[in-house]
């Protein structure tokens, strides 16, 4: 079985988390929906703005989701964070938006505060088991893109490097097996630490880390809002609750 592997990086990134409005926060890592958006931009598929235009014009043939999501939601992706312990530094950026419609405040000047990720980088694996995945691989291998890919917004250009096709092996999860998962994994798909299913034996000679965050994994059909799940990045040996995983070289990854 084959997968496309490449490194996705940039000087900065901003994946907006709508938790508060006074300061715009960013998710700590790229999430699945944002990555589908990048693939959609590469292939030239329409996004949210096109769907909003269709809503305003009350077109009868409007789809439940943006085009990129309709066409790409079934592809399988594994994301490996290259940040230290899965984490990237964040820096607060403050700038003025002085266009006339930016703010109702006196002078029409809006002070925007955003947290940006600094020098983010991820290794992305795309399972080549369907036509859309193979189409993405063809575009990326041949350095083709209909629209420029961004890391969240157009302030953050995306770099795609180290593109290759790799062989992967599907492995059935053993009930008594504890393994280290290199990629991001849903917290619900690994055993609960409180049940003592984590094994530290193989990690005694290295620093242990476990990073978790609620990240978008899909869009709701009704409002196209993010549906989030707790995602974990760890170098601990864990009991995987999924039926199977994949081995690439000497590393274990899971696809979603």
How many β-strand stretches? 17
Described by the principal axes of the CA atoms, the overall outline is globular
- How helical, in percent, are the residues? 10-25%
- Largest sheet: number of strands, sense, barrel closure: 4 strands, antiparallel
Do you know the CATH topology?
Alpha-Beta Plaits
SS-derived structural category = alpha+beta
Number of contiguous helices: 4
CATH architecture: 2-Layer Sandwich
User: Termini, distance in Å?
Assistant: 16 Å
What top-tier CATH class fits best? Alpha Beta
Write down the overall mean pLDDT.
88
Order of helices and strands: EEEEHHHEEEEHEEEEEEEEE
Percent strand: 25-35%
Low-confidence runs of at least 5 consecutive residues: none
Structural domains: how many: 1
> Strand arrangement, largest sheet?
5-8-1-9
Radius of gyration: 20 Å
What does this protein structure show overall?
InterPro entries: CRISPR-assoc_prot_Cas5_HALMA, CRISPR-assoc_prot_Cas5_N. This is Type I-B CRISPR-associated protein Cas5. Keywords: Antiviral defense, Membrane, Transmembrane, Transmembrane helix. This protein is of the alpha+beta class and 256 residues long. It contains 4 helices and 17 strands. Strand 16 and strand 17 form a beta hairpin. The radius of gyration is 20 Å and the shape is globular. The two termini are 16 Å apart.
